[in-house]
Amino acid sequence: MKKIFALMTVALLAMTSFSLQSCDDDNDDYVPTTYAVVTVKPNADNSSFVMQLNDSVQIMASNMVTSPFGTKEKRALIGFTAADGQQTEGELTRVKVLWMDSILTKPVARDLGEEANKETYGDEPIEVVNSWETVAEDGYINLRFRGYWGDLKKAHTINLVHRTDANRPYLLQLYHDNMGDEGTIVADGLVGFRLPEAFNESDEPITITLQYESYSGKLKTVAFKYIPRKD
């Protein structure tokens, strides 16, 4: 079972460094940096790749030929600017990738029943952060989460379960196991989950319901509008 360490993601660190550069008011050539969560999609032999920016837009790197992740599809955080010179290649917008960092991505876990889920996946509270990194798109749901750590080097476990609910077929529940690590250090993490194929069967947008036990002691609910992925 994959575990997650507390982290402040590379995106936020990069945003800090780029913002320092942007303070130079005399730099007339400054090009603003865009930050995004993308799906990196290489072709069969990784001789080229595209990045799915959202449900309808793909972008292509002007300064990279092959994916740094090989032939595997990966979710990643990137910082990019407009490419020099030609802006499009066919229907693809070309961009200059400044940095790229993969996101840990897990499959959705099996629903064992309410009590068994808590025993297996943990029942400690967690918070989902309302952030540009928290998004459901292109076959995935990415979650920026926040919790308490006693030791930032201690691994916690995060799992997402597709709950069996006849009235809510797209109900997901997030579970957190702090592995006995209790403390007062507030830290964030970032994780992606590959959605089950059942979420992509509809030809129309669906509403995904995410619920989780919060630090307020209440079961919180977040709704995501999701356009099913069609490869």
Key descriptive features of the protein:
single chain; mainly beta; 231 residues; 2 helices; 5-stranded mixed beta sheet
Evaluate the radius of gyration. Answer: 19 Å
Helix percentage: under 10%
**Biggest sheet descriptor:** 5 strands, mixed
Number of helices: 2
> What is the succession of H and E elements?
EHEEEEEEEHEEEEEEEE
Query: What integer is the average pLDDT?
Result: 86
Which consecutive residue ranges, at least 5 long each, have pLDDT under 50? 6-26
For the termini, the CA-CA separation is 28 Å
| Strand order in the largest sheet | 1-12-13-15-16
- Amount of beta strand: 35-45%
By DSSP, the count of extended strands is 16
Helix-strand category: mainly beta
Q: State the shape.
A: globular
